[in-house]
Design goal:
Layout lengths: L2 E9 L3 H12 L4 E5 L19 E3 L2 E2 L3 H7 L7 H9 L5 H4 L6 H20 L4 E2 L14 E2 L2 H15 L3 E4 L1 E8 L5 E8 L3 E11 L8 H7 L8 E2 L10 H8 L4 E2 L5 E6 L17 E3 L14 H13 L5 E6 L20 E3 L2 H8 L3 H14 L34 E13 L2 E2 L6 E3 L5 E7 L16 H22 L1
Parallel strand pairs: 1-2, 1-10, 2-7, 10-20, 11-17
Antiparallel strand pairs: 3-4, 5-6, 8-9, 9-10, 12-18, 13-17, 14-15, 15-17, 16-17, 19-20
Helix pairs in contact: 1-6, 1-12, 2-5, 5-12, 10-11
């Protein structure tokens, strides 16, 4: 065992943890950062994501930023209490600890985002409005050139230049407190070296629990066995940061029974092998039956609820069935991110045999669907209102018959991009307890913060890590200096 003294100790080396470490070090603090992975794999999920950011310019978040977060920021809570939490910044012990996204925290998130982008630019990060990963889009998206890996690289380089001490293959296990309840450090374990103690104010930035089978089954349910992290970095996220804070009385926030769902090809081992082409075909389960409206809106707006319906099917699996017309959609490959080829067939019966679904069922399903189509041609890159008639479930857009061979199909399961449940924080990223009071010496950033309920506000997760990581590191360093 060893005891090492720092001003700020950060658990997690994704963009949230790195932002906290850099901000604290820039304020003059002695900083340690813990990373479960070896150096060559550092960065957690951040290094695998394209890191889309919900901003309409370098210095403005999207128009619906705060509204969308607020509308999806709680479950079934008394509306009077929600209003009280929004209008009374101090609140009561009840409202301050409610499991909802604090409106004041959402406001601070929006306010601090542009400054965080400017801060990253000073380190060499570059941003642009690059082509979206979807065929259609309804909101602007800013993108770091080089994706999440570029953000990890510039932040890590800055941290190293500032003298931040990196502990690789080191896992935070428990929080340490003094007699007055103040968090004074972390107990951690380094591979091959055993237990070590790192003292200092603590920033938890170690992700959600998508890589922890026990927590997934406990919170998401036994069907979580049919989920998998969207990228290999997710397997490192095992929920210790959330667990150790809850163990000392932190307030929970976010929807613990849910997660950000994305449709992926289960045959692929690459990062984010997404299949977003389904609005231009039909989705069938392993019995060859349709079960949902494939196109209630643009795919960027509806892929999450549609993917949740896929998760509900037997073995959490569905197939998207397309005819040859989809290949004539301009840039159709934008909607197919898997590296695996489609299953093809000259007839629906041949296709069904390769899919492993009953051929007669699939043929009947397609016949019912084709009969319900109006015959009107689609306009594939805009919401065209070409819908089925007299079919349940309906298809609201791009409903054209499937008849042109060869037929294509891709299997789809729901991936778990990140879990929603986490810790409640205030506007300074301080973790609050069950009475809504800040726990002295403890901060959180990134996925550890619970903010989402039911439906994810797209392109805010990476930004949340960057913004609250910076806030947490700067505040922790300031309090060290003033102590």
């Amino acid at each position: 065992m060893s005891l090492e003294q720092f001003d700020v100790v950060v658990a997690g080396c994704g963009v949230a943890g790195l932002s906290a470490a850099v901000a604290a070090a820039e304020a003059g603090a002695r900083v340690a950062i813990l990373e479960r992975a070896p150096r060559e794999e550092r960065g957690g999920q951040s290094r695998y994501t394209e890191a889309y950011l919900r901003m309409k310019s370098l210095d403005e978040v999207s128009d619906d930023f705060e509204t969308h977060l607020a509308e999806n920021g709680s479950g079934a809570i008394d509306p009077d209490l929600v209003e009280q939490a929004a209008t009374d910044a101090r609140g009561t012990s009840l409202t301050r600890a409610l499991s909802l996204a604090d409106p004041n925290v959402i406001e601070e998130f929006a306010r601090a985002a542009p400054g965080t982008i400017a801060w990253l630019q000073t380190m060499g990060a570059r941003f642009d409005f690059l082509p979206t990963q979807f065929l259609t889009k309804s909101q602007p998206r800013l993108l770091p050139i080089g994706g999440g890996q570029a953000l990890v690289d510039v932040l890590a380089a800055r941290a190293e230049a500032l003298g931040v001490h990196f502990f690789y293959e080191t896992t935070a296990q428990a929080l340490q407190r003094d007699a007055g309840g103040r968090v004074i450090g972390l107990e951690a374990r380094t591979r091959g070296q055993g237990v070590r103690y790192l003292h200092g104010r603590v920033v938890l930035a170690s992700g959600g629990f998508e890589g922890n089978a026990e927590m997934m089954a406990r919170y998401i349910g036994p069907r979580a066995v049919y989920l998998r992290p969207v990228c290999k970095g997710g397997y490192y996220n095992r929920g210790e940061g959330i667990r150790m804070a809850l163990d000392i009385g932190a307030a929970a926030c976010g929807d613990f029974g849910s997660y950000h769902a994305e449709p992926v090809d289960p045959r692929s081992g690459i990062s984010e092998p997404s299949v977003f082409i389904f609005p231009y075909g039909i989705l069938v389960n392993l019995d060859g039956e349709r079960f949902t409206d494939e196109a209630p809106g643009t795919v960027d707006a509806v892929y999450e609820p549609v993917t949740r319906r896929i998760f509900e099917q037997r073995k959490g699996t569905a197939w998207v069935v397309l005819d040859a017309r989809h290949q004539r959609i301009p840039n159709y490959r934008l909607g197919i991110r898997t590296d695996q080829p489609p299953v093809t067939g000259a007839t629906l019966a041949e296709l069904a045999g390769k899919m492993g679904v009953p051929p007669d069922r699939l043929e009947a399903t397609v016949a019912r669907y084709n009969a319900a189509c109006s015959g009107q041609d689609w306009q594939p890159l805009v919401l065209d209102g070409v819908a089925t008639t007299g079919l349940y479930p309906p298809k609201s857009n791009w409903a054209c018959p499937l008849g042109e061979a060869p037929f294509h199909a891709y299997p789809i399961i729901s991936s778990n991009v990140f879990t929603f449940g986490g810790l409640k924080v205030d506007t300074q990223a301080r973790v609050v307890d069950a009475d809504g009071e800040p726990i002295a010496g403890l901060y959180a950033a990134g996925e550890v913060i619970g903010m989402y309920y039911g439906h994810y506000t797209g392109a805010t997760s990476v930004l949340k890590g960057l913004v609250f990581g910076r806030i947490a590191g700067a505040d922790a360093a300031t309090r060290v200096a003033s102590a």
